[in-house]
């Protein structure tokens, strides 16, 4: 299998078409962005770290009955994936109040939610990726009623798995973003990535509000040691995977 052309370049990855129409190649970049790309930078080895973390988590999710676009890794920062049509929604699952939820509601940072909150954001840079009500989502025909129900069901299942998995890594899963796509047979698959770029992760070994941050908030908030935090997540993920095999 060989690459034929660039299909799409996003903030964190480049997608390439291959000579097999059903298979794409995702190349993970070291580029970092925040605040809808208003802040830009680079994190050393981020592409390799995020690709490795995502690959391990996709494999574990597949073993737990969640269908993903993951196939294999031809290199350390590349992932072969099934070609899907991405549903233009960012699906955010929240377990603890942080980030925009605190800003928009006045909830105190760290408030544990009584039950997971699933939110939908429109993947549209020009509009600033706005939060959508369910009726607005359906009005825009971004997904069908049945697809919305399935996505919510899958998001909550993924949340339960990831909370348990990261707990074994001595990490608290605060919230995270998912993306889903539809394959040629109209199956909904988990796509994109699961990494410190897309998850808010707190180290359970410290209560310090800055030291505990193991995700892209270190870049957003200029906390420093970003690569070290990402590397720490990778090492804990690998250790946990190894311990459970």
From TrEMBL:
Record's catalysed reaction(s): 5-amino-1-(5-phospho-D-ribosyl)imidazole-4-carboxylate + L-aspartate + ATP = (2S)-2-[5-amino-1-(5-phospho-beta-D-ribosyl)imidazole-4-carboxamido]succinate + ADP + phosphate + 2 H(+)
Involved pathway(s): Purine metabolism; IMP biosynthesis via de novo pathway; 5-amino-1-(5-phospho-D-ribosyl)imidazole-4-carboxamide from 5-amino-1-(5-phospho-D-ribosyl)imidazole-4-carboxylate: step 1/2
InterPro entries to which the protein is assigned, alphabetical: SAICAR_synt/ADE2_N (IPR028923), SAICAR_synt_PurC (IPR033934), SAICAR_synth (IPR001636), SAICAR_synthetase (IPR050089), SAICAR_synthetase_CS (IPR018236)
UniProt EC number: 6.3.2.6
One Gene Ontology biological process: 'de novo' IMP biosynthetic process
UniProt entry keywords in alphabetical sequence: ATP-binding, Ligase, Nucleotide-binding, Purine biosynthesis
Transmembrane segments: none
Record Pfam families: SAICAR_synt
Superkingdom to which the source organism belongs: Bacteria
Top class in the EC scheme: ligase
Residue intervals of the SAICAR synthetase/ADE2 N-terminal domain: 6-236
Protein name: Phosphoribosylaminoimidazole-succinocarboxamide synthase
Native organism: Calothrix parasitica NIES-267
């Amino acid at each position: 299998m060989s690459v034929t052309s660039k299909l799409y370049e996003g903030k964190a990855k480049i997608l390439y078409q291959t000579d097999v129409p059903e298979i794409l190649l995702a190349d993970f970049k070291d580029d970092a962005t925040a605040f809808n790309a208003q802040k830009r930078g680079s994190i050393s080895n981020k592409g390799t770290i995020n690709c490795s973390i995502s690959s391990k988590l996709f494999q574990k999710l597949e073993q737990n009955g969640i269908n993903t676009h993951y196939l294999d890794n031809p290199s350390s920062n590349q992932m072969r994936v099934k070609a899907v049509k991405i549903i233009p929604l960012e699906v955010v699952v929240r377990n603890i109040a942080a980030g925009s939820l605190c800003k928009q509601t006045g909830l105190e940072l760290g408030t544990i939610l009584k039950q997971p909150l699933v939110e939908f954001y429109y993947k549209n840079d020009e509009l600033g990726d706005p939060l959508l009500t369910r009726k607005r989502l359906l009005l825009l025909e971004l997904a069908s009623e049945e697809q919305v129900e399935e996505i919510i069901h899958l998001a909550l299942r993924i949340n339960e798995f990831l909370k348990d998995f990261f707990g074994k890594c001595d990490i608290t899963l605060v919230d995270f973003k998912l993306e889903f796509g539809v394959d040629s047979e109209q199956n909904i698959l988990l796509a994109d990535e699961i990494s410190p770029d897309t998850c808010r992760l707190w180290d359970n070994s410290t209560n310090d509000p800055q030291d505990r941050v193991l995700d892209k908030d270190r870049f957003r908030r200029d906390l420093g040691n970003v690569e070290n935090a990402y590397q720490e997540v990778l090492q804990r993920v690998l250790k946990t995977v190894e311990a459970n095999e």
